[in-house]
Amino acid sequence: MIAIVILLVISITAVAWIVSSQWRLNRQRNIITSKPFPTQWRHILKKRFPYFKAMPTDLQLQLKKHIQIFINEKQFVGCDGFEINDEVKVTIAAQACLLLLNRKTNYYPKLKQILVYPSAFIVEKNRTDLAGVQSSQRNVLLGESWEYGKVVLSWNSTIEGAADPFDGSNVVIHEFAHQLDQEDGTANGAPPLRDITSYRSWSSTLGQEFKQLQYCAQQHIPSLFNYYGATNPAEFFAVISETFFERPVEFYQQHQQLYKELSQFYQLDPINWH
User: Fold this and answer.
1) Which band of pLDDT confidence, cut at 50, 70 and 90, is reported for residue 10?
2) Which domains does the chain have, with CATH numbers?
3) Whole-prediction pTM
4) What is the 3 state secondary structure string of the chain?
């Protein structure tokens, strides 16, 4: 009888701890955002993230709070001798948190670490063909998003993407769009939407536009979107997210329905910032 009571108490305690974990996390986040945004970080935003100046004041305030939480919760790791400092953290966090504005967010819950290389890095992948023959392939990358808690970035590419906020190319936005896509499993171009009724329109619109980009890539027809987006639906979502934030006017003019889908998903309309 005593053993049953002890087990019951332990079970209730465990459940209470799990249930209260989000409350404790939110409380910690409120403490973090109640502190003033560091002056040094404001200087870094001004130096490395010119996009910030174009944003409405309310979104600037949101972004700064998101940056504080992101930096507090994520681990930054320098690779190949690269040194992590506040400039690196703020520059990456600012771009990553653009994707979280105006949305209920848990700050990329699967993400634990951001690995930063000084420049492009090499990833070696093992492949097995249909005959069972294994081979090794070395790829030179600027960024990569892993399903199991990591994003890998090139610092050179990170600051280049931030320096020109209107060229439609941003490796941080690209990789963190993958993180959003991976929140409900494997990246497939369909991140968690606000309600189940949104998936039909999302699937129809993005499916048609994806096929159109594939056709443009095959026929070498100029497109607003990088041909890399024609690789698969996951890459398509990441590529159009870059364009949505950095070239919204052309995006809306040329792909109005697709723009509306992303605007509804991100709860933003960056046309007004440009």
Assistant:
1) low
2) 25-164 (1.10.472.150), 188-274 (3.40.390.10)
3) 0.86
4) CHHHHHHHHHHHHHHHHHHHHHHHHHHHHHHHHHCCCCHHHHHHHHHHCCHHHHCCHHHHHHHHHHHHHHHHHCEEEECCCCCCCHHHHHHHHHHHHHHHCCCCCCCCCCCCEEEEECCCEEEEEEEECCCCCEEEEEEEECEEEECCCEEEEEHHHHHHHHHCCCCCCCHHHHHHHHHHHHHHCCCCCCCCCCCCCHHHHHHHHHHHHHHHHHHHHHHCCCCCCCHHHHCCHHHHHHHHHHHHHHCHHHHHHHCHHHHHHHHHHHCCCHHHHC
